[in-house]
Amino acid sequence: MSTRKIAIFDTTLRDGEQSPGCSMKLHDKLLVAGNLEALKVDVIEAGFAIASPGDFESVQAIAAQVKGCTVASLARCLKGDIDQAWAAVCKAERPRIHTFLATSPVHMQYKLRMSPEQVLQQAVSMVSYARTLCPDVQFSLEDYTRTEEAFSWRVIEAVIKAGATVVNLPDTVGYAIPEEFGARIRGVMEHVPNVDQATIAVHCHNDLGLAVANTLAALRAGAGQAECTINGIGERAGNAALEEIVMALRTRHDYFSDLTCGVDTTKIMSTSRCVCSVTGSRVQNNKAIVGQNAFAHESGIHQHGMLANRETYEIMTPESIGLTQSQMVLGKHSGKHALKDRLAQLGISLSEDRLQELFTRFKDLADAKKVVTDADIEALARGLEMRPDAQQKLVFDRFLAATGNTNANVSTVRLRVDGQTVEEVAMGSGPIEASFNAINKMLNLHVTIENFSVSAVTANVDAQGECDLRVRHNQRVYLGRGVAQDIIEAAIRAYVHALNGLLEDEQRMTVNAATLAAANVGGGLV
Ligand code: MN
């Protein structure tokens, strides 16, 4: 049997970013793209170029940075969208335009208000047009699972004839069942006469928890590209998780013996951690492959078996996904090189000035805590502002809170605002609220805070506190993270972090108003 190499198409930066609260900034997206490149995925879907000037800018930056994999931008089936996608990816080593149109009766009738014939024509004409710009064009039949099969075959045949190099059959709403989905893909392979002239792809959502199972069934049935995201993030219940698909193919190579993929699995853990830290959303402890407990053996019987022979209960090794047990404990005597080495193992790369700042905070922490764990270092890195203090509008300086259960809570906070020292005092129902009120007072701000959480980084009483929160302002959401030995300080740092994002955005919005007008976002069909 000949082997087929499956293309791994990662859409963490496009579909993944659409998950609630997962919006990423340019710097974060470049960090994720760098990890995906090291992971050796075949295609990075970098964004939806026409969605906003920020999206355009990040697709363009990723296209310029990434070498060795294809960079795609999503575009609706409209000339203006396709032009914008091409403008964003044209500088890539291997650019791809990914355009889509819905083909299910419910979408065509209610969303598009188009007849099936109109949909077919629009798809053909826009794929042809995209091919005049870019040699690699992917077309997706949105809501394929609920599309009438005979109609889907006609559309697939027509877009391949028009020049589509990849035809994607998404389970947009997460409705498919593995056996049925596999049979439908087999039907495509059998009934579309020119199917051998393009790659068939699948893109499965996890609404019924079947995204990975559906993807694997489709690959067995002849699909050549799997679309997925790191940690399975994405719209609603998310997308098929890249790490689960890849590790299933590898671990069960006996079953998937004719399929291979080029992913370097030892980079899975570092990429997963990177996505967690830039989106601020962690994976559940029992998440397959990358969850905290995925390789933990708790019960006595299992531990006994593991000690006798790891294969008794271990179907894959932690090392195969890059989960190495660190032998060296970091403490107050560790130098910058040891810290840099450990950061590299954790998938964190920092510029020289960021590294220096992290090293200073690491030394402070090592003074207060004897043993600094990987989790501590990751938390410190997550808490770092992405740019040096000198470039931040707001910089935390100090606070003093008077707190207790019998008196009013008062906090005095001092920040540097554009280089000027500003101090305010305010009351609140607790010391954190009092501190936030003080900041609101000095900036004259009215924002909503959501998803406020404070957690301990490690299990001991001397643990660092890590605060995550979201600030909502004018229908936009800004993520804030702060880490400190004191939880009030961690919360203030997180709030300042989020507010810096907000203030930077407001500045950009004024600058970008002209760009937005020039982009001429046309009337939407989909
Ligand atoms: Mn999707």
What characteristics describe this protein?
41% helix; alpha/beta; binds manganese (II) ion; 3-stranded antiparallel sheet; single chain; globular; 526 residues; 15 strands; 8-stranded parallel barrel
3D architecture notes:
By secondary structure, this protein is α/β, with parallel strands linked by helices. The chain has 16 helices and 15 strands. Strands 1-2-3-4-5-6-7-8 form an eight-stranded parallel barrel, surrounded by seven helices. Strands 10-11-12 form a three-stranded antiparallel β-sheet. Strands 13-14-15 form a three-stranded antiparallel β-sheet. The two termini are 42 Å apart. The chain binds manganese (II) ion.
Biggest sheet, open or closed, and with what strands and sense? 8 strands, parallel, barrel
Query: Which strands sit side by side, in order, in the main sheet?
Result: 1-2-3-4-5-6-7-8
Structural class: alpha/beta
Shape: globular
Strand content: 15-25%
Mean pLDDT: 89
Using the CA coordinates, give the radius of gyration: 25 Å
- In whole angstroms, the N-to-C terminal distance is 42 Å
Please provide a brief summary of the model.
This protein is α/β, with parallel strands linked by helices and 526 residues long. It is 41% helix and 20% strand.
Layout of helices and strands, plus pairs?
Layout: E1 4-10, H1 26-39, E2 43-47, H2 53-65, E3 70-76, H3 79-89, E4 95-102, H4 105-112, H5 116-133, E5 137-142, H6 149-161, E6 166-171, H7 178-191, E7 199-204, H8 211-221, E8 225-228, H9 242-251, E9 259-261, H10 268-279, H11 300-308, H12 336-345, H13 352-368, H14 374-383, E10 394-402, E11 409-417, E12 420-428, H15 431-443, E13 448-456, E14 465-473, E15 476-484, H16 487-519
Parallel strand pairs: 1-2, 1-8, 1-9, 2-3, 3-4, 4-5, 5-6, 6-7, 7-8
Antiparallel strand pairs: 10-11, 11-12, 13-14, 14-15
Bound molecules: manganese (II) ion (MN).
